[in-house]
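# step 3/5: fold
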Amino acid sequence: MRWRRLLTGPVLALAAALAAAGCASATAGTSGTSANTPATAAASITSAQASRAFNSYVATTAKAIQTDDGALALSVVTGVQRAVLSATIKSDVPAVCTTTSSTGSSTGEGCFYGHPAPHQYTYGTPTFYLPEPSGYPRFFVADVSRAGKGVSPAEGMATWVGGAEVPVDGRVLMLFEQSTAAGPWQLASTSQFPSGMTLPALATDKNGDIPQVPLTSTDLLAQPYAAGPLQGAVVDDGPASAAANAVAAGPLTTAMYQAARAGSGIGLQAPRGDLYQWAMEGTAYPAFALRTANGGALVLYALYLNSTVAVPSYIDKGDPIDPGPPIQVPLDLSLLLPTGQPAPRVELEAQQLLSFAAIDPPAAPAKIQVIAIGGGLNYAAAS
C-alpha cells in the first residue's frame, strides 16, 4: 500500500506557522470554524434552564429510539450531532441489523431506521458550565458521566472515533446550543475523554458564570481559533509538523496521525498500486472558548477528517482514469453507500465530522492539549 498526506491545507499550515512563531495576527474564522461574535445581547443561562435542556434531550432521545422516530431524534440535535445522526438515518440499509460490541457480543440495542440503534445511555448528575452572557448562539456545557445500557462497565468496552480509542462508558462534555431567543436548546456535540485525559478547573466570576474567551484573544499560547488548525496539522503531518511545537503529543493528535497513516481509524486499505490519503480540515460550525482557572482556555470546535483510497490517475486528475483492483469497503462505510453497490475500483471516499475539546494554555512551555473527541462518519462515496 502506498500512502500520502493530502496537500490541501494551506490555511492549516499558515496557522501552524503563526502559532509556532508566537504571532497572533490572523482573523477569526480562517480555520473554517466560526467565531461567536454576536451583535445581539442575550441573558445569562440559569442552572434550571440548563437542567431542563439536558433532561429534555435525554428523555426525547430515549423515546425516539424506542419508537424508531428519526424526526423526533433530530429535533433535539444540531451541529455535529445532527449531521452524524442524519447520515445514519438517510443511509439506504435493509431493516435487519444487529449491534455488536468491540468483543463481538450483542448489546441488544436493536434497530433504528434500519441501522444499529444509537447507544442508549444512563447518565450521572451533570455539572453545568454556564458562560457569561454574550450573544447568539448561546451555549452551555454539561460535564457528565454516562454508561451504555446493557453494558457492564467492568467489560471495559471501547470504540473508535476518528482513529482514536475511547471508552464506551465514562465522562463526556455535551455542548448545547440555542441559535435564537425563541429557538430550542439542542445538543450540538458530545465529546468523550480518552483514558487518562482530564479537564482542568474553569474560572468563575462573582455570579458563578465562566468568562468567555474571544477566539482571537492574544493572551494565550495561540489564538483559540487556531487550536483546530494546529491540531489538524499534527494529524496531517505527525510529529514532524511545525505545529507539534505548539500541540502536545497524545491520543487525539500524534496517535490520530498514526491511525490515519495506517488507515486503522475506519479500516481503509489500499490495494496494490492504489493510493491512500487523508486530510483534516476546518468546518463552518461555531467554536467556543471558556476561561480556565489558570488563565488558559477550554476551546470547543469541530473538524472534518477526509480519507480516500483511489487509483493514482484519479488522485492526479488524469484522463483517462483506469480502474484498479476492487477496493474493500469497511462495514461502517458500507452503511453509507447504496445497497448492492459493487466494490469500487476507482475511488472510495469517507468523511468523518468530529468534535473536539482542547486546552489552550496561557503560555509556553505548555502546549495545546486535545482532551476529548466525538462525532463520527458523515459521508461516503465510491466508484
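# step 4/5: annotate
The first helix runs from residue 10 to 20.
# step 5/5: archive (pending)
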